[in-house]
């Protein structure tokens, strides 16, 4: 049988894969072993070369998700003390039609306690409101959803410094200040 006469498959449900060596003889290899051989021989991806990412690469975007059922629920997103920089892509709302909103959050804080926060709405989905609350030298950022059965995800683009990522329901603190969304 010639190689071009064999059946083409999209998935392998068997434990073993049959290969043909350079002399035309069939070989049988375990799928796990074949995967390891490919992984060992595949180059590491760089800016100039295609390949696999290292497991400890900082190029992974790890989205964190949270589901709530209450309308106007308050979610604590981040808190920070001292030098901090956070840039995150946030989606919130129901994932249907135009009910889901997307935002870009940029927050930075200097060691002296001065800070800035910018929220940019990226689509016409449902609205959410963002607040910050300052308690001494600690600043926290909150999101208040405008729809029930909301799903909120944060995909961090940059997180550096003395911050804590929360994504938990929490009451909006008294005196919290609305962050203008542009």
What would you note in describing this structure?
With 182 residues, the chain is mainly beta. Helices cover 6% and strands 49% of the residues. The chain is built from 1 helix and 10 strands. It has one helix at 31-41; strands spanning 16-20, 26-30, 64-68, 74-92, 101-109, 115-121, 128-135, 138-145, 150-169, 177-179. The strands form 2 sheets. Strands 3, 4, 5, 6, 7, 8, 9 and 10 form an 8-stranded antiparallel β-sheet that branches.
Largest sheet: 8 strands, antiparallel
List the helices and strands in order: EEHEEEEEEEE
| Radius of gyration (Å) | 24 Å
Helix-residue proportion:
under 10%
Note the overall shape: elongated
Strand content: over 45%
Counting H and I runs of at least 4 residues, what is the number of helices?
1
Strand tally is 10
Unreliable segments (pLDDT under 50, ≥5 consecutive)?
Answer: none
Distance between the termini: 66 Å
The computed structural class is mainly beta
What's the rounded overall pLDDT mean?
80
Question: What attributes characterize this protein structure?
Answer:
8-stranded antiparallel β-sheet; 49% strand; elongated; 10 strands; two-stranded antiparallel sheet; 182 residues; mainly beta; 1 helix
Topology:
Layout: E1 16-20, E2 26-30, H1 31-41, E3 64-68, E4 74-92, E5 101-109, E6 115-121, E7 128-135, E8 138-145, E9 150-169, E10 177-179
Antiparallel strand pairs: 1-2, 3-9, 4-5, 4-8, 4-9, 5-6, 7-8, 7-10
